[in-house]
Amino acid sequence: MTSGSPRQMRLTAELVARTAREIADPGPQRIPGYRPATDADHDEAVAAILATAPPDSDGDFWVFAYGSLIWNPAFDFVEKRVAVAKGWHRDFCLGWDRRFRGTAETPGLMLALDRGGTCKGIVYRLPQVARKANLDRLIRREMSMVPSAFPARWIGVATEKGPLRALTFAINRQSGRYISDLSVEQIADVLAVAAGFRGSMAEYLFSTVKHLEELGMHDKHLWQLQELVADRIEAATAAAASPAAQ
Length: 246
Fold this sequence. Notes:
By secondary structure, this protein is an alpha+beta fold. The protein has one domain (13-238): Roll (Hypothetical upf0131 protein ytfp). 33% of the residues lie in helices and 26% in strands. The protein is built from seven helices and nine strands, in the order αβαβαββαβββαββαα. It has helices at residues 13-17, 39-52, 68-71, 131-142, 184-193, 201-214, 220-241, and strands spanning 35-36, 62-65, 79-97, 108-125, 145-146, 152-159, 162-169, 195-196, 199-200. α2 packs across α4, α5 crosses α7 (220-241) and α6 (201-214) packs across α7.
């Protein structure tokens, strides 16, 4: 896997550090129509994934990553490849996070795979000997509430070694957590201030764009967002430091 020289990001680690703050885990947040996922829910989801896995002569099992799983995979893997998912794109369309990277006062928006366009990401091949154990870890990270707003599903992806069927997480457009009416400026407003006990949305955006660029995957939408978020963080910290704000 090769990558070109990364572009110079406007959003930097120093700017991201300005958004860091200590936030205690508030625990599962109540959302009308949803409830916290239980161990039984997780076990049922893993069983359904294994039961619907596409037949493969080699027994390979692939997971398509488009966001944080690229830079922080929640499983062990034995191979990874660049992959392209046609008919899908990544977007900040999963709302509203009031726990992990947001609070009730400043809720966050998370990335999910949505219909339309093209998405370049990474596919990971899970080891056969610990497939269920790795799926358990993955599902427990990705499915905190039920019904899931971005349930696991199988999609087709293209790689340099041929097409594959891979597991991924795509937004359910019928979900009440699907956000589709925000402008890029409004999304940037959210990402510049939201933070939860796992960190800030600015950190999440920075890590995603940084790793995509290092892999030679330029996402124009996320690139525009990191520039806008950087502008907002700089403006907010400059205003806080001005004599008029003292």
